[in-house]
Sequence to fold (451 residues):
Amino acid sequence: MKDLRDYLKVLAGDEKEYAISEGQVSLDKEITQIVNYLQHRGENPAVMFNNVAGASMPVLTNLFSSRKRLALALECEEADLERTYRAREKNFIPPVMVESGPVQEIDIDGEDIDITTFPVLTHNSGDVGPYITAGMMTIKDPDTGTRNTGIYRLMVKDGRHTGIHMAETGHAHFIFKKYIERKRNMPVAITIGAHPALYLGSLSLAPLGVDEFEAMGGLLSRPMEMVKCRTVDLEIPSNAEICLEGYISWDLRETEGPVGEWQSVYCKEHLYPVVTIEHISMRKNPIYLDICPGGTDHLLMGGLPRLSKIYASVKQDCPGVKDIYMPPGGFCRNLCYISMKKTMEGEPATAAAAVFAADFFVRHVVVVDEDVDIHSDTEVLQAINLYMVTGRCFVMPYAKGDPTDPTNRNGVVTKIGIDATTPIGGKVQRVNSSEGFDHIDLRRVFPGKVL
Fold:
């Protein structure tokens, strides 16, 4: 699969994973409401909206909200998703340059630039307005020339300008400060719509100085193809759908927000930098990709790359750790499950401490035995209620927390590690609820019924 379109061809025909809408829908909250309603019904497909009022292109959203679809992006089995990501993320494969690509089939300059013609969604009733949520922004470190790529929310202000939030702990914020020190605007290239593995690679927590495009190649298991931008000294995926070229002003700040964010709460209004768009390139008949903020779509794609860094840290301190997972119920950031083969008491506390050190977003860690399925909230909750002893909980008060965490007070939160493992030598015998399933014939038990 070279691009987003190849990926969608593979999805086609699986109604549980991919739905196509032909009925007319509005950009003003309705698309998000439809996705939320589907999830409320226990359905969670990626949805292509082909008939968006006032739009000349379709909107694809909810693409990343299924582990099965994330596994498909990496061409692996769902059960191997985290392990595959961890292995490939470290296998950097440099990109290759090509002369041209579909993303530059159409060029728009000058007075014709108008990003308000794109089907940009207003997602929630409390949002200040429409936001581009699937913009993969590429910049270059002015000292080293190394590229850096990440996803940042973009508040559409008018046809050529957006607000942008760059997290204070992110690499883009660090690089942008170098441009501020030089009193120079920072060139940017913002890609909208690409192979899902590229989005996962752009969120890699690789160290500063690593080119995320090399991590993307690792996730694809092949070099990705790139083209030079038209107006800025940057490169972009050649098979992407849309690219916005421009710059972030070093000295201009305007209000941005409020908008619904990853914890399903609204962030406050802030003074943030402004992006100016000076060129647009795109495919013929492009697909506009959207990510539902705070939804499963947003959470799963952001959580998977974080797991890679956390696992490496925890595994170094606790070799008995088998796997880790951050469930959507904990926003794929606040809550972390660990399965481990415990060899001595106290190891769960060490594992929890390692998680807290690796990622300040995490506030709660639950450690369970290796036979507990950490992808099942039910199994983890059962382990907590069977084996947790309050006195064995690991409490870390006054710890650095995420600034957007609702429990944050002056930059600090209280973190808790829960030991839900069985005592060494004290394994309890549990009823096997699936015992005898192979011998049950419902046709004999309920004759004449369709079961």
Remarks:
- The mean pLDDT is 92.
- The chain has three domains: 1-62, 93-286, 297-419.
